[in-house]
Amino acid sequence: MEGSKTITMELTVTSLFGQMKEHSYYLGEALKSNPQIAELAAKIQAGDDDDSVLKDFIQSGGTKLGNLLSTILGKTAYAWDTDKTKLTFTTNAVANFMDSQVDILKDSMLNYLSYYTLAEWLNLIKPDESQRYKEKLVELETDMRILGTHRSKPTRS
Q1: Distance CA 119, CA 141 (A)
Q2: What is the pLDDT, as a whole number, of residue 155?
Q3: Which residues does the chain have with pLDDT short of 70?
Q4: Contact 58, 113 (CB under 8 A)
Q5: Which of 100, 103, 105, 104 is closest to 73 using CA atoms?
Q6: 88: helix, coil or strand?
Q7: Are 118 and 20 in contact (CB under 8 A)?
Q8: CA distance 133 to 149
């Protein structure tokens, strides 16, 4: 497309799991202080045995994130690598989208997918805790929409 540029951003499952599992760990630890729900609190802490289910959540979150990026930046496709160790998002953005915003956007995407995965995970185990992360998703969507508006000044020819 004329007047556009391709932006490719990769997120690794290792980084997604690291962030998501860290949040679930601290949430579980905080809830363990109540002896009545100590067993439930331990279940909140996602472990390596849960990776298969978590990858399913990442996949559905990747679709939502791709759709969001399509509305913010331009048509976006996403795909897993063959080993399902990373997701690649490819966007046809406007030509003057600021390259300096790509890393910030990528960090927001990582946060979005890890919070999405955590919200879905908590929805299975303790749905009332899931809402907090769903609210964070709305905040991140707003932040990404703002990032998507950053443009370079046109240069004179």
Answers
A1: 15
A2: 63
A3: 1-3, 154-157
A4: yes
A5: 105
A6: strand
A7: yes
A8: 25
